[in-house]
Design goal:
Number of strands: 4
Strand content: 15-25%
Distance between the termini: 19 Å
Structural class: alpha+beta
Number of domains: 1
Largest sheet: 4 strands, mixed
Helix content: 40-55%
Strand order of the largest sheet: 1-4-2-3
CATH architecture: 2-Layer Sandwich
CATH superfamily: OmpA-like domain
CATH class: Alpha Beta
CATH topology: 60s Ribosomal Protein L30, Chain: A
Length: 109
């Protein structure tokens, strides 16, 4: 199904690939109506801590808004931001940065 979507630098816009991943999440959530998701927003290492926390939050909100627009109840979705604090890839290059600019959907306990 895919649990993460990636973003361009300084962007909260969802790409076509990201929307396909989120559409699979919508289908999953329709099949399992008692499951809730926590959407975690992330950023790459560039920028200040405050800027990246805000950017991560906007990315998580972008995913949440897309899912609710597809009919998922907002009560099943929560968001959090980690900014640059939890990188997926270590490195100071585009290959690492592109993996760290993401939103991850986690089944909430």
């Amino acid at each position: 199904m895919g649990d993460r979507v990636y973003f361009a630098t300084d962007s909260v816009s969802l790409s076509a690939d990201s929307k396909q991943t989120l559409d699979r999440q919508v289908a999953f959530l329709r099949r399992y109506p008692t499951i809730a998701l926590r959407i975690e927003g992330h950023a790459d290492e560039r920028g200040t801590r405050e800027y990246n926390l805000a950017l991560g939050d906007r990315r998580a909100q972008s995913v949440r808004e897309y899912l609710t627009a597809q009919g998922v109840s907002s009560s099943r979705l929560s968001t959090t931001t980690y900014g640059k604090e939890r990188p997926e890839a270590i490195g100071s290059n585009e290959a690492a940065w592109s993996k760290n600019r993401r939103a991850v959907s986690v089944i909430a306990q």
